[in-house]
Amino acid sequence: MTADRMITTVRRDIPASDIGFCHSHEHLFIKKGQPELLDPSLVLDDYEMTKAEVETFKELGGRTIVDAQPVGSGRDAALLLRLSEETDIHILSSTGFHKLGFYPDGHWIHHTSEEKLRDLYIDEIENGLFADGEDAWPEDRIGARAGLIKTAADFEGTAGPYFRLFRAAAAASLETGVSIMSHTELGHNALDQISLYTDLGVPEDRLIICHLDRKMENADYMLHVAGTGVYIELDTIGRYKYHSDEEEVRLIRMLIDHGHEDRILLGLDTTRKRMKSYGGDIGLDYLQGSFLPLLRQSGVTEEQIHKMMHANPAKAFSK
């Protein structure tokens, strides 16, 4: 039940029931800098272009977008707040950390203690986001709060330098009740992430595991992950270098047929190559205009689609 639960957006707390049609994993703005060195297509820094995408999303019935870029890794919190104010779209912003490749050598993420990172994440949830943090410890606070803790790992998983970061995120989640959305690299080490978090006391229904649908051969593994009770966020949609949308539909149908329809979330994990206003391929209207009709044609019911796009996000992102 979500009757008494609330979701923290960049403008205000809203009742979970007000979430409406929700994209559960996007990137609306990413600054130049280290992300651009990783891949120029990651940069999303034109306010009017992103706004045009969001307005199209809204015209088709969209209400809420979860932005998955955390503090100090290119997140533009000031533009997220401005965008939400000007479009009247709910935006959830993320604190936490990304893959270490998103940070240059010498960045504070590499050496800050677990306790100080925990306190930073709690601070952004309780007191407000920072608009900076790429070049030095964040100081420029704005009037918006984080509604989610983002975590990530590469093929190394939770071991090595990531262990301290995952522990800090778990502690912040336990202190605030805010959910954790965790990136997996092509689906690898998802069960290890879940095991670490649950061993530290984070409940399974506070965990959202991303990108398990990158590889079709992950299908059986997805069932094991879904069986733990976590939320599974799927976004390899309109990404033909991985597989077709018809294959993605089959993955979703498999999860539904095995009883996991209450744990599926959908998004597009947008980049510059995927935003039409930036010259990309699909745009933020792709779920409504192209992919959800495919789901319907496959026999997925309106009730099941409502769960994936409305009811499940309302539970996953609320406290």
From TrEMBL:
A GO MF term: zinc ion binding
SUPFAM superfamilies xrefs: Metallo-dependent hydrolases (SSF51556)
Binding-site positions, Zn(2+) 2: 150, 183, 211
Cofactor: a divalent metal cation
Sites bearing N6-carboxylysine, chain numbering: 150
One protein family per Pfam: PTE
Bound cofactor: record note: Binds 2 divalent metal cations per subunit.
Domain of life: Bacteria
Chain residues that bind Zn(2+) 1: 25, 27, 150, 269
Keywords: Hydrolase, Metal-binding
Matching PANTHER family: PHOSPHOTRIESTERASE-RELATED (PTHR10819), PHOSPHOTRIESTERASE-RELATED PROTEIN (PTHR10819:SF3)
Similarity remark: Belongs to the metallo-dependent hydrolases superfamily. Phosphotriesterase family.
Name of the protein in question: Phosphotriesterase-related protein
Species the sequence originates in: Kroppenstedtia eburnea
